[in-house]
Amino acid sequence: MPKGLVVQKYGGSSVANVERIQKVAQRVISYHKKGFSLVVVVSALGDTTDELITLADKINSNPSEREMDMLLSTGEQISGALLAMAIHKLGSEAISFTGSQVGIITDSSHTRARIIKINTDKIKKELKKGKIVIIAGFQGVTLNQDITTLGRGGSDLTAVALAKELKAETCEIYTDVEGIFSTDPRIELKARKINKITYDEMLEMASLGAQIMQARSIEVAKKFNVPLHVRSSFTTKPGTMIIKEVKKMEDIAVSGITLNKNEAKITLCGLPDKPGVAVKLFKHLALASVSVDMIVQNVSHTRLTDISFTIAKGDCAKASKITKKVSGKIGANEILIDEDIARVSIIGVGMKSHHGVAAKMFGVMADNKINIEMISTSEISISCIIKKKFAETAVKKLHEAFGLNRG
């Protein structure tokens, strides 16, 4: 491949209207004129995906996942064609493709498909002609020619996978913020931009609620060491580099705070405290492709126990239905469903070598009279499930307590 290949991905906010599409076209052409070969991945315009989901719901509240993929994949196709037209008007050559046209082959897990392989022959052929290649993100096709989508934020995964297959110098992820911040700047105005962050920290932040990048895309970038540059499409300032290792000061334990309000908690009360009960429940959830996150089981002194688990709010209806069906078979007395929760997490590679981080987090919660319902930990994160009404207060107080506020 030609030296100087860059993959760029533009999110929905970057191509939300005609003016922004024209701005993206100008930026892309400016790179091309400097001698870079360009592969551009686009998301659907603005809120198009949400609007299509709402439209589907008006037709059928429980639509086929295959038909949802057929519907939702059209959004990125529109963006790609419009961007190509904008580039043509400015006098440069470009060609747009759907995921299936460039051979992004996936498994058959509709609405959350996984990429199996990518045939880059068509892309390389067009790049050799000197064209800017535009690809609809978020989508692929099965070996049986069924259109699939890659899950929320799937355009990030498209871009990273293409960067890996094409051996790109870098993969630039354009969004509406200037990079990765210590927390959501819409919640905490004193949030700091992070210049460099590790794959591990970014993966943890994405998994725990940061909405800048899809977690699966970070996993692929880490596995194949794809350099990522997260930056704003509204400025030429450098953003945040996501790389393998970052040298940090010894006193930095926590790098960021994340908030996820898109979770639900299901509790099964009065279960028999005996082997095999939990597996019957979670096996059925797994078969329905419901991803379970945090799980807490109470210690039993009465031969009965409670099990609570969290899931994505979008899976709540499906999970509730399965849980109610299984509950009779495993002897549960009651099922409680709570969608009024949020997850607040602290993340940092430095936590591994610092003592008292958890105690400090729990102390902040206690000082602000915020009850913790569930706790989970990893090597570089601590997460708490709390009531949604306390979520933003918790973020602000933790951000301050761990010294992340801008001076």
Draw up the topology in text.
Layout: E1 5-10, H1 18-33, E2 37-42, H2 48-59, H3 65-89, E3 94-97, E4 104-106, E5 115-118, H4 121-128, E6 132-136, E7 139-141, E8 147-149, H5 154-165, E9 170-175, E10 180-181, E11 193-194, E12 196-198, H6 199-207, H7 215-224, E13 228-232, E14 240-243, E15 256-260, E16 263-272, H8 277-287, E17 292-297, E18 304-312, H9 316-330, E19 334-338, E20 341-347, H10 357-367, E21 374-378, E22 381-387, H11 391-401
Parallel strand pairs: 1-2, 1-9, 2-6, 3-6, 9-13, 12-14
Antiparallel strand pairs: 4-5, 7-8, 10-11, 13-14, 15-20, 16-18, 16-19, 17-18, 20-22, 21-22
Could you describe the 3D structure shown?
This protein is an alpha/beta fold and 407 residues long. It has 11 helices and 22 strands. The chain is globular and about 75 Å long.
Strands of the largest sheet, in order across it? Answer: 3-6-2-1-9-13-14-12
How many helices?
11
Proportion of strand residues: 25-35%
Task: Characterize the biggest β-sheet.
Answer: 8 strands, mixed
Q: Gap between N and C termini, in Å?
A: 46 Å
Helix proportion: 25-40%
Low-confidence stretches: none
The gross shape turns out to be globular
Mean pLDDT score: 92
Which structural class matches the secondary elements?
alpha/beta
| Radius of gyration, taken over Cα atoms and rounded to an integer in Å | 23 Å
**Total number of β-strand segments?**
22
Summarize the entry for a quick read.
It is built from eleven helices and 22 strands. The protein is of the alpha/beta class and about 400 residues long.
